[in-house]
Amino acid sequence: MRVGNTVFSADRITPPEAFIFIISIFAVTFAYVA
Description:
This protein is mainly α.
């Protein structure tokens, strides 16, 4: 998955990083919608 100039690889990302990344996506989306 490519986001901007950063490439997130499923082989290199750790579960905590994935969780934080997903939460940040929801937070930004919620802030944008709200």
